[in-house]
Write a structure and sequence with these properties.
By secondary structure, this protein is of the alpha/beta class. It has a domain of 110 residues: ANL, C-terminal domain (GMP Synthetase, Chain A, domain 3, 2-Layer Sandwich). The chain has 17 helices and 26 strands. The protein has a 9-stranded mixed beta sheet with strand order 2-1-11-10-12-13-14-15-16, sandwiched between helices. The model has no long low-confidence stretch (mean pLDDT 93). Bound molecules: adenosine-5'-diphosphate (ADP). The site of adenosine-5'-diphosphate (ADP) has 23 residues, from strand 14, strand 20 and strand 21.
Length: 550
């Protein structure tokens, strides 16, 4: 049978090269700003594919990357899957043991590594048997002091700029990413060509993350984290201009790229935008080209949505998971909410949103029954669909736990309102259970972060003899904030919206909230520190104690 009917990544590359040869790709690389066209990109991608052939990579082999967001990394995004191999992005922020485990589990033979990340990779590789026989190609440097590596430009140099891309089976994995493993060992998720194809097509629809050929797309979310939420693929499929912010961009880099390149759509976790918002306080930043900021990975606070609204920029709050390629839901306003008042709209937009077309979900309560969509009842969210994985890589133990009858159990506890908007009330393991009743740590965190003096806040459940668990809040104040009055003000704010027994038993000030390798608040460290309620200072006002008459 003649080929060309499969759902693979090849048509996206073909379309960009053929229909948009002059469209630009701009990148803040280690060796300076790089600016080239889709046409040149396609040439270099073909060179890389030929180099991979010569090295000995075959269909089905995994090839790893250990890189920030830049144009060379983007070259691997199409070259590797389009020859039928598998792009395995590794998160360089993981601890060494996790990196060793991942390289061994994925059976990586060749790793592309950034110049600036070579010392980190060298530290994981040194003396580790998991790295025996693994070769390295370094990006952005003539050579690496830290690793015995071939420079990337030398690796591809002299190879033909044409490649006869093969017919790849749509079930052939094109990519692979490990969850960060906040609990236990990281789990590998393989993305088949078909999963990435359908994820790309669905996210391009109006209720996904729409993009067009007049857009300028800048993924700040790392390309080592679920393919930068698929944006390098979607932007290519759309024929849009790409902007890559390079190694560890700070708020100034992000602001400059937005202004200089006319970015229209960008994406990242809330921490990135908090940084930009803070930077804008003291610097004159022109955000006028920006249409949309995709915020996901953790909840987008209402205050952030409002801040961008005030500057004419729409925040699209998105929810997803490594296991879902990753986009699941996006908080678009449904048509019948267009005329609702601003606060109602804001309330909806701060939720995790409505499922993008192509996915199905159900929410199961503690009794094993589906919840009512009343915005009150909650349970665990289950999902299924073409771009949701059906299993973890070589992890039957985890499969048993996280999948049921073809559904992925997300571990997220949610409500669904009558309009169908999902709201994450907690991670199943983070919900605080006080006196048999549930307290949402996420809601308390968001409520506390609404205080002007708070830069970050996180809430955990601390084991308590009588109540099983009680909430304790950890707050990072903004510079110069009056801490003493802040504690009272926070309690006053919380009292307005929440029952007394929800109020944290203590509000502690800390310098920084510990973060996971994907930039999310890590409650593990704080939990270890506060393993016993006797360690809690207990500055909760008398009338707010759970024992008081509520
Ligand atoms: P990891 O598990 O490696 O930290 P993932 O991106 O796979 O990274 O994490 C997925 C989880 O992140 C979701 O199950 C959910 O708990 C959380 N999450 C993702 N997006 C949002 C969001 N918009 N609001 C709240 N939580 C989110």
């Amino acid at each position: 049978m003649p080929g060309g009917h499969s759902q693979t990544l090849r048509p996206f590359l073909w379309r960009a090269e053929t229909l948009y040869p002059d469209q630009e790709i701009v990148s803040r690389n280690h060796d300076g700003m790089q600016r080239y066209t889709y046409s040149e990109y396609a040439d270099r991608t073909a060179q890389l594919a030929n180099a991979l052939d010569e090295y000995g990579i075959e269909e089905g082999d995994r090839v790893a990357t250990f890189c920030w967001n830049h144009s060379r990394h983007f070259e691997t995004y199409f070259a590797i899957p389009t020859i039928g191999a598998q792009l395995h992005t590794i998160n360089p922020l993981l601890p060494d043991e996790h990196i060793q485990y991942i390289v061994d589990n994925a059976d990586d033979q060749l790793v592309f590594v950034d110049q600036s990340l070579a010392p980190k990779l060298a530290s994981a590789a040194e003396g580790a048997e998991e790295f025996e026989g693994v070769d390295f190609v370094v990006m952005g440097a003539e050579e690496s002091d830290a690793l015995d590596a071939t420079p990337y430009e030398e690796f591809i140099d002299g190879h033909p700029t044409e490649y006869d891309w093969p017919e790849v089976d749509e079930e052939q994995p094109a990519g692979m990413c490990y969850t960060s493993g906040t609990t236990g060992r990281p789990k590998g998720v393989e993305y088949t060509n078909k999963m990435l194809w359908s994820h790309t097509m669905a996210t391009l629809t109006p209720q996904g993350i729409p993009m067009a050929d007049d857009d300028v797309i800048m993924p700040v979310v790392p390309m080592f984290h679920v393919n930068a939420w698929g944006m390098p693929f979607t932007a290519t499929a759309a024929g849009a201009k790409h902007v890559y912010p390079g190694p560890q961009p700070d708020p100034e880099d992000i602001a400059n790229l937005i202004q200089n390149e006319g970015v229209t759509v960008t994406a990242g976790v809330p921490t990135v935008w908090l940084g930009l918002m803070d930077y804008c306080k003291n610097n004159d930043v022109d955000l006028s080209t920006l249409d949309t900021v995709i915020v996901g990975g953790s909840a987008a606070p209402q205050s952030m949505i409002r801040w961008f609204d005030d500057r004419g920029v729409e925040v699209l709050h998105a929810w997803g998971m490594t296991e879902m390629s990753p986009i699941g839901s996006v908080s678009h306003l449904k048509a019948d909410l267009e005329d609702a008042d601003y606060d109602t709209q804001l309330d909806k937009r701060a939720k995790q949103g409505i499922m993008v077309p192509g996915l199905e979900f159900k929410v199961i309560n503690e009794e094993g029954e589906q919840i009512t969509h009343d915005g009150e009842e909650f349970g665990e969210l289950y999902v299924r669909g073409p771009w949701v994985t059906k299993e973890y890589f070589k992890r039957p133990d985890a499969n048993e736990e996280d999948f049921e009858d073809g559904w992925l159990k997300t571990g997220d506890v949610v409500t669904v309102d009558p309009d169908g908007y999902l709201k994450i009330v907690d991670r199943a393991k983070d919900v605080i259970k006080s006196g048999g009743e549930w307290i949402s740590s996420v809601e308390l965190e968001n409520a506390i972060m609404a205080h002007d003096g708070v830069s970050e806040a996180t809430v955990i459940g601390v084991p308590h003899e009588k109540w099983q668990e009680r909430p304790v809040a950890f707050v990072v104040p903004v510079e110069g904030a009056d801490r003493e009055s802040m504690v009272d003000e926070i309690y006053d704010m919380l009292r307005e919206d929440y029952p007394k027994w929800w109020l944290p038993d203590d509000i502690e000030f800390i310098e920084e909230v510990p973060k996971t390798a994907t930039g999310k608040f890590s409650k593990k460290d704080l939990r270890e520190q506060y393993s016993d309620h006797s360690l809690v200072e207990g500055n909760v006002p008398e009338d707010a104690a759970p024992d008081s008459d509520d």
